[in-house]
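Case study 2.
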Amino acid sequence: MKSVDEQLLIPQADYIKLLRPLLPVEAFEPDLNKLVILLLNLIILGLGWAIATYLNQWHTNLLWLYLPLTLIMGNSIIVLLFSSHALLHGSVIKNSRLIHWISLLGLAMWWMPPTLWKAVHNREHHGKTNSLADPDRNYLSKQSNTWGKWIQNQFVPSSEVNPICLAIGMATAWGIHGFRNLTSVLLFNRKDVDYVPAAFTVSARERWAIAQEFLLIFMLHFSIMAYLNFEPIKLVLSYFLPIGIGYAGAMFYIFTNHMLCQMTSINDPLINSVSLKVPKLLDVLHLNFSYHTEHHIFPGINCDYYPVVQKLLQLHYPERLNLLEAGEVWRLLMQTPRHHQNDTTFTDWSGKKFVSCPLSQPMED
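Prediction:
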């Protein structure tokens, strides 16, 4: 017999069945504009590195003039993730070979092999969002206190996190996420690996492709640093700082996507995901990534139509949609522990503090 929780959850397929006929046909057609955006941001990074090669000729007092370009490059790194994300969901072009090689370039600054991304994000995360089997979920309090769990406890937003550790975590959490999953599948490829929230496996062919792609990404990063002559000032201003800014900006979105939500045994995007209210400029710059619930219902839709999906959700499911101001979600993240005691309760490292998930849906019929 189903629990009350399961009875009230609505599978993703049911939302699609209701909403798909209400959306225009063009919402599901490829959008080449996102490919142009991806390529433009690759060009921005290239220009930034080209200019950085002359930084050793700048007077020390003038180096601050490069900082606006550092910020622009940091934003380009964010856009490369979000545009590659759309590309790999099939909403940009349909040619699988082109998708693979362009996404390899787009995800290179994120140290993310596209084959690994398709496994961990498209297949595992989207198919099992915020369930026990989701590799992107919070750790459970009952899971072993491994290095992966310790790092999340120390560096992600929570009521216990140290502000300095949080600042470090914003710039490095993506790297830890990638390292955990990469080593899990390349070194072990078993479902009993305990330092990831939920281990998954890939096929032998995928495993080999991931290794090859990671090697290409490593060579690309080495080439960039060599192009900058391994000079510290060039590397700091045009490589490390833009990457840190880009990772921090993207992690703000990623932390707010699901971490505050209750876990669900049935993939119900309105319960296990959050959409943010952000300034319009950020939606323009970041391809409407704030519309995350909408994305989880229709992963392959043109992101320009997420607002249309949101309006339909507000019309048909006004009490279920988690739509909050970005600042409010962040405040709630900073007021709650980060480990799951159960589906609707958070706890801390010690397991002595218990806080109900602030976005838990009422369980009464």
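Strands lie at 275-277, 323-325, 339-342, 345-347, 354-356.
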